[in-house]
Specification:
This protein has 442 residues and is of the alpha/beta class. It contains 14 helices and 18 strands. α1 packs across α12, α5 runs parallel beside α10 and α13 packs antiparallel against α14. It is elongated and about 85 Å long.
């Protein structure tokens, strides 16, 4: 018998929860036309039922008791929007065990416990939606699982943390240091009081692990993704990047490398110099951008707001609509949670950071005296690293000056070995700055 309506229960009434509820309540008629029956918000559970979210809710909809969501037989889809790990995982698994469909925005949970949750969804024959877990309102999850499903994804380049992009954009535009801009971003509400997950690259690593899982059909241990944040980027490095025609962005990068068996992949998060004219390099402020390269489709760039109540709420409700359509057709599980059929997923080798090959920017702070450059280039040459260009400004005999070298393609292992040797030399005044470069080797 055709369902007369689809019931939704919301757990977590914070920023994203309020955005999702607002869209469900404001766009009721539109959603009904798209689905075919009403999609009705039945209950909202949150520990805080006193704060005004700017929404007029029917009496009795708001509760502090999460059981009123999990136990209500009229609720078909449960939205988990509380964040965190253990409590969120327990609620998701219990909802699935009761035969309820689940939507979450919880990228950290999926990055760490995704395999267990994917397996539970398959076992219980329910859908799991998590479009909001990567890129806010950008539909990158659906692009990977459906829109680009015919492609081998050759590479992913993503600005997937708005806080870090906001900070780097302002540092680039205004020439101020990281700590000054971070403090202003916190005062303006663009950065958390504890911004570690954002500026240390952890949030980006969580999101990249989800995309890699979906793009390549492989389980991903987020701890194996090399992760480096933006805390050491200086205005000096940004200025030199401009001189070379590059812009510095915090990127999540994945590449399919082929090789034996099903091949291997790179997955890494770190500050990256990109050609200033490239589409991703021009993304400013809190916006996100994800460039996907498929073997058939070539370049696709998805751009938009990566956070916030309404953009992220939009992604949550897009999952609700998709799952509601499946429910009405009896087609739960039509798209596997991890994109590939479960028995067709393969563990692929994640290439260690020491084995990657790329271009490098190296900034040495040296005492200005004769022979310094030849000693540095000698060590690089000994390790098989070829120099593309050198920038040394303003001789200041006996004082510390920057010497900047751009390399041709080199292996990370060779570069790191060189720096360990060079940084021990008497004329080096501080540890060398290394920034990886994505671009054409000339």
């Amino acid at each position: 018998m055709m369902k007369e309506k689809v019931g939704v229960g919301l757990i977590g009434f914070g920023t994203v929860g309020a955005g999702a509820a607002k869209i469900l309540l404001q766009n009721t008629a539109l959603i009904r036309r798209r689905v075919g029956v009403p999609v009705e918000l039945v209950r909202i559970a949150d520990l805080d039922v006193a704060t005004d979210r700017g929404l007029r809710l029917p009496p009795g909809m708001l509760t502090t008791d999460v059981r009123q969501v999990l136990d209500d037989p009229s609720i078909d889809i449960v939205l988990e929007l509380i964040g965190g790990y253990e409590t969120a995982k327990r609620l998701i698994l219990e909802a699935m065990a009761r035969g309820k469909q689940v939507v979450t925005a919880n990228k950290a949970l999926l990055a760490v416990h995704g395999e267990e949750i994917f397996e539970a969804a398959a076992r219980h024959g329910v859908d799991l939606g998590f479009e909001a877990s990567v890129g806010g309102g950008i539909p990158v999850i659906r692009a990977l699982t459906e829109g680009l499903a015919a492609n081998t994804i050759l590479s992913i380049y993503g600005i997937i943390n708005g806080t870090s992009n906001y900070i780097l954009s302002r540092m680039t535009r205004e020439g101020q240091g990281f700590r000054e801009i971070l403090a202003e971003a916190q005062r303006a509400g663009y950065a958390e009081a504890d911004p570690t997950f954002d500026v240390a690259g952890i949030d980006s690593a969580h999101k990249l692990s989800i995309m890699v899982n979906l793009a390549y059909g492989t389980p991903v241990n987020v701890k194996e993704i090399y992760t480096e944040g933006i805390t050491k980027i200086t205005p000096l490095d940004i200025a030199y990047a401009k001189e070379f025609g590059y812009t510095i962005k915090l990127l999540g990068i994945a590449k399919f490398l082929g090789g034996e068996g099903d091949g291997e992949i790179e997955a890494r998060v770190h500050p990256t110099m990109l050609p200033a004219a490239s589409p991703v390099a021009q993304v400013e402020g809190v916006y996100n951008a994800i460039q996907l390269v498929g073997d058939a489709v070539q370049d696709i760039v998805l751009y938009g707001q990566g956070a916030g109540a309404m953009p992220t709420g939009s992604a949550v409700i897009s999952d609700v609509i998709d799952i509601a359509r499946n429910l009405l057709k009896g087609a739960a599980g039509r798209v596997p949670p991890a994109s590939f059929q479960r028995e067709q997923r393969r563990p692929l080798r994640l290439r260690p950071i020491e084995d990657i090959m790329t271009l490098y920017y190296l900034r040495f702070m040296v005492l200005d005296r004769p022979g310094v450059l030849s000693q540095i280039s000698g060590v690089l040459g000994h390790h098989g690293i070829s120099i593309s260009s050198v920038l040394q400004k303003g001789r200041k005999e006996g004082q510390t000056v920057p010497v900047v070298i751009m390399t041709h393609t080199a292996t990370e292992r060779a570069v790191q070995a060189s720096l360990r040797e060079i940084d021990r030399m008497a004329f080096i005044s501080e540890p060398t700055t290394l920034i990886r470069v994505e671009g054409q080797d000339e």
